[in-house]
Amino acid sequence: MGIQLRKLMRSRVIVVFGATSRIGRSVLEVLAAQDQVSVALVAAVESAKDTRVQRLKSATNSYIVQCNFAQGGEDSLRRAVRNADAVLLVPALSESGVRFSRRVIDAAAAEQVPRLVVISSILASPELLGRCRQEHAKERPATEAIGSTSTDVAALEGYEAVEVHARNQLPEHGRCVSLRIPLLMETLLYCRDELLFANRFVGCYEPDTHVPCISVRDVGVAAAEVLANPRRKYEAVYRLTGGINVSCSPNELAHTLKGHLGRDIKYRKLSDADFLRVMEEKDAPVQVAQGTVGLRIFLEERESHEEDVSTSQEKSSSNTREEGPRSLHLPDAFRSTSNFRQLTKRDHTTPRQWLQQHATSLFARTPQNQVQLFVVGSGEALFLEVSKFVASQITAPSSLPPRDVGESAVPTVLSGRSNSAGDYSGLAQAKVTLCTVKSAPGSVERSKSFGIPSPPAVYQLEGAPPYPMDDLLKQLSSLDVVLLIPPLRLGGRACLDVVRAVVHAAARANAWGVVLVSSIFVGSPTLQQSVILEQLEEIEGCVKSSGVSYTILRLPLFMEYFLALSCCDEVGSLDEEKRELPFRDEAKFESEVEARTQDEVEAGEIKAMVSSPPSHIMWPLLEPSLASARIYLMSLEDAAKALVAAAFTFPLHRGKTKELYTSSVTMTDVQRILQRHASKARPVRLSRVDALKERQGREFWRVAYWPRAHTQQFLECAVEFARDVRTAADSAAIVGGDVDTSAMVLPVSQSFEDLTDIRPRTFDEWAEENSKRYTQLLAAH
C-alpha cells in the first residue's frame, strides 16, 4: 500500500536488494542526491533492526521494507517490488545468495516490473573460473585436485547464472540491464590491515600488469542512471571497462600510495594458491577471489601473446590468426569500451583520482589505529636482545625505517595534533614499554607452611623504580600489544603465575592482544610428552583460554647456545688433542670433504670421540646419537626481529600459532662451520664439550634464553626426531622404497622472510660474526 500511495504522488519507486553492500549503498546515495528527479527509494532488507540499515536510512532517507530472504519468503519479495518502477539487484556470491537472487528475479517478473538492473562482473565468466580452477589444481596435490566441491559449484553459480536467469524471465529487450564491472578499486580494502601495519599489500598479479578497475561510486552513478529512467531504451549488457587510464599496475599503485601516505609501500606477489588462501582468511567471496586469479591468467596470457606477435612480424597474417591467444577467447569482455560515458555523460574516476580522495582517510596511520609495544620478561637473553633491538631504533622519527629491520621497525605515526583544518600533523614513534620481572611470587607451599600471604611480585619498568605487579600492569592500554617472554628461569609455578597475571591485565585493559614465546617442539605429534613440554603447553593453554587475542611464536634453540658452552678443562694439552684427532686447515679440510662422503667424515669424528672420552663429560656434543641429529636454530637477533614484527603487525597474525626457525644442521655440520671461521691455531673440538654444562655467570638463560632443562629438551627432541627419520628410512628400504631423509625436517608455518620482510642470518654468517667469542670458549687449550 505504501508503494502504491507513492505512485499516486507521481514518484518513481526504486527498490534495491543488496542495499547494505558497498554498491547498493552507493546507488542509493547517488539517487538521493538527484533533486531534479522525484524518486522514492526503498531498501529491501532482511532485518530492519540491523545497525547498517539504520545508518543507511538516515543517510539516504530511504524507506525500509523487511522481507523474508529464506526459502518460502517469495510472497514478501513480491510485495516489496509490487508497483515498483525499477529494481536493482546486487547479487550475493554464495550458493544461497544465487538462489535468493533467482527468487528476486522471479518476483520482479511476476509483478511486471518495467526495469531490472543486475550488477554483474567481467570476473565471473565461466571461462575465467574454469581457467582459475585448472591453474589452481596444478599447485595442489592430486588427491585434492580431483573432483568438484560445493565451493566450486557456488563459484560457477555466480553472476553468470543470475544473468542467464534474468534474461530468461524478462526476455523483452531492454527490460533487464546487466552492468558488467571490472575489478573494484575498493578491493584494496581487503589489504587495509597490511597497509596500516606492514606497509604492503598483496595480490596475484605481476608487478607491472595493468588491471582494469572501477570505483564503487562510478558503478553507483551508472546504475542510478538506468534506474532513474525506466522508460528509456537501453542495451541488455553494458561493460563498464575503460581505457589505459582506468587501469593500474601494482607497482603504480605502490608508488601512488607512497606519495599520499609518506611511507615506503611494497607489493608482495603471491602464488595463486596462497592468494586464494589469504582471501579466504579475509572472508572475501570465493567467486571474487577465483575470478581475480582467472583475470590474472587472461591478462598475462594476453600480454605474452602480444609479445609473441610483435617478435614474429615476418609471419603471414593467416599464421598469426591461427596462433591467437592460447586458450582463452574473451576479447569482448575486457575490451575498452565507452559504455560508461554513454550512460553517464562523464569520464571514469581514475585510480590516481580515487587514491587522492581516499588514501589518507583509509590508510593513514594515526595514534588511534596503531599498536604500542609492551614487553614483559625477566632479564634473560631474549628479553635483553629485544630491548637492544628496539632501543637501537629510538631515534629521530622517520617515516622511512632502515632497510635492515623490515616489518620489525618501530612504527612512525602522526602525533595526533591537528591544525586549523582538522588534519593531523607531526611524526612520532609508537610507544614502547619494557617491563622486567625482578622477583617472582612465593610458592604455594611456602604460603601454606608459614600461614602468611606471599609478598607481591615486584616488576620494574625499564629505567624506573620497582613497582608491585598490579600497579605496573595498570599501565597497559587498549593500544598495547603485550610481547610476553615467559620467565622460565623462575620455575614452572612462578612462570605460570606471571603469565596469568599479564594475560588477565591485558584482558582488563582490552589490549590488542598477546604475542607469546614458546618452543618449536610443543604440539609435535611424534614426540613423547615430558614435564617441560607439558609446562609450555600449560602456558599456551592459559593464553588461549583467557579470551585475549593472541599470536604464539614457537621458536627453536638459539645459536647463542654455543656461546654458553666451554671446552672441557681436563682434556690435556693441545698436542695430545692433535694426536687424537689431527686438526686440518681450511683448504685441506674442504678438499678432504669433497673426496670423502659425509658418512665417512661423521664416522671418523665419532670414532675419535669415542676412543678417548673425557670421563667427566655427561653428554658430549658429538655423542653418536646427537652428532647425526638435526638441530633447529635461530639467532637471538633474528628472534627479536620476528617477535617485534609479529607484535607491530599483530592484526595480521591474530589467533595464529607459528613455528619458526632459520637453520637446520646436524651437530657435525655445526663443528665444521665453527671450525671454518675459528682461528686456525685453535681447533674447535665439540667432542670435548658437554652439551649441558653451565658455568656460573654464563647460565644458558643468560646467554641463550632457554634454561638448562629446556635446552636439554631441545636436544633430546632432536635426537628422538632423528631416530624417527631413520626408522622411516629403514622401513622404506625393507619394502624396496627410497626416502629422501634430507627433506624430512620440521615444517615452518611461515618463513622468517615473509614475517619480517628481511633475510634471516644463516648459521655460517653467525659463526663468522662470532668467531672470536666462540673460539675462546670452545677451542682446545
UniProtKB/TrEMBL annotation:
Keyword check for Aminoacyl-tRNA synthetase: no
SUPFAM superfamilies the UniProt entry points to: NAD(P)-binding Rossmann-fold domains (SSF51735)
Region (Disordered): 304-334
Recorded coiled-coil stretches: none
Alphabetical keyword list: NADP
Pfam families: NAD_binding_10
Feature: compositional bias, Polar residues: 310-319
Claim: NADP is one of the keywords in the record: yes
Residue ranges annotated for the NAD(P)-binding domain, each copy included: 18-129
UniProt-listed PANTHER family: NITROGEN METABOLITE REPRESSION PROTEIN NMRA FAMILY MEMBER, NMRA-LIKE DOMAIN-CONTAINING PROTEIN
Name of the protein: NAD(P)-binding domain-containing protein
Species annotation: Peronospora matthiolae
